[in-house]
Amino acid sequence: MDNPAENVSTLLKEWEDVKIRLEQLFRERDQKNAKGWMEKGIALFIQFLYYTNEESTTPSDSIPFQQFYFKPVNIEERLGFIMDRPGLYHSYRQLSELMVEQEKLFVKKAIVKKSSRPKA
User: Fold this and answer.
1) Where would I find the YpoC-like domain in this sequence (predicted)?
2) Which of 16, 89, 92, 100 is the most buried (most CB within 10 A)?
């Protein structure tokens, strides 16, 4: 995790591409293809969650939500819903909201971290 801000910038650009594709697929009611793109979006969100909390991602079935300080409210229930039903438009909307909330938390963390540095 060399530069978290750079990694997040790249991740958010990738999310924008995924989001545009998902909007098109849901507009066309193409749930089958939307599912694959949703899985990519979910993976990006999980990666973002780890970056924000300065944790390294480890490929495992369970996400250690309790060890994350910067996370959206009700993350376990919301992400569980999305992962159980990736083909639903409602899941896409929820994932989009989680990305927005996580981005705000990332910015908040950066501000807190910057203000807590000792002055030169």
Assistant:
1) 6-114
2) 92
Q: Which two tokens stand for residue 118?
A: 């000792």
pTM for the model: 0.89
CA distance 49 to 93: 18
Tokens representing residue 56 in the block:
């390294």
Per-domain residue ranges for the chain? 4-115
By the 8 A CB rule, do 52 and 105 touch?
Answer: yes
Q: What is the CA radius of gyration of the chain?
A: 15
| pLDDT tens digits, one per residue of 78-89 | 999 999 999 999
The torsion angle over the Cα atoms of residues 72, 77, 80 and 86, rounded to 10 degrees, is -80
What spatial distance separates the first Cα and last Cα of the chain, rounded to whole Å?
A: 26
Phi, psi of 80 (to 5 degrees): -60, -45
Q: Which residues contact 82 (CB under 8 A, 6 or more apart)?
A: 38, 42, 91, 94, 95, 98
